[in-house]
Amino acid sequence: MTDVNLADARENMIEQQLRTWEVLNDRVLDALEKLPREAFTPPQYANLAYADMQVPLGHGEVMLEPKVEGRLLQALDPQPNERVLEVGTGSGYLTCCLARLASHVTSVDIYPDFTARAEDSIRHAGIRNTRLEVGDAALGWDDGRRYDVIAVTGSLPQLHQGFHRSLAEGGRLFLILGQPPIMEAVLITRVGEDQWSSESLFDTTAPPLLGSPVTREFSL
């Protein structure tokens, strides 16, 4: 695929995937439009960078569909003065999108090779307001900080509150809950020290976060 085709594909992603899936936030669309997704996609899948599909990354992990990334960003709505925690760095693409919208992003992945490749891609993209960590965050990531925004990019078969208390008051948490064939994306907001609200966003699927507990049921 040529550079011209990639530019056309990026525009088609915006107009035919994101806008038709009600991703209408101008800041989010601008971040997605300006960041070359193919620079984060494994080379053998570069021609699928803007396709409406999950792109394999290795280890059974994927880049989420562009429309899901767009809805995630729109629901979380990171602001320029806010700090973000991302669980599941993957390719680093969503990390960069979050970094373009927020003050700073801490991103955690359990696979060191993902982190190494993502660091290189993020550096080449000119993004400087990120910190990447290697670790197991399946049950939460307690680094002593509270975050305004938390994005968990792998699914949780069972809801737990490992991430809830890492939210600042007013902070937003994006999760994908359940098991195949249908999972539910939800937005959880910390409305008080011991109070959270939950909003169902859309149905989707995603590989489970490695190490997440598995049960047959989940509840909010």
From TrEMBL:
Report which residue ranges the record marks as coiled coil. none
Look up the domain of life of the source.
Answer: Bacteria
Q: Which family does it belong to?
A: Belongs to the methyltransferase superfamily. L-isoaspartyl/D-aspartyl protein methyltransferase family.
Query: What name does UniProt use for this protein?
Result: Protein-L-isoaspartate O-methyltransferase
The organism named in the record is: Spiribacter onubensis
